[in-house]
Amino acid sequence: MYVCLCKNVTDRDIRRMVTVHGVTTMRQLRNELGVSTQCGRCAQCAREVLQEALAECAAARACPGLAAA
Length: 69
Hints:
The protein has four helices and two strands. By secondary structure, the chain is mainly alpha-helical. It has one domain (about 1-69): BFD-like [2Fe-2S]-binding domain (Arc Repressor Mutant, subunit A), CATH 1.10.10.
């Protein structure tokens, strides 16, 4: 599903950033993907997907970003 139409970012893109690149915050997500930098309508949805992905990683203990924290 598309989360950010302005930057063509999908929920899969966000999940990949969490699991592969260790993104753990909205600030990092904005810097990496540009989410919520134009119209801002995607911010809440992006935050929800980020939180879901972080929870899934924590449960699987597979996040590089969470291992360092």
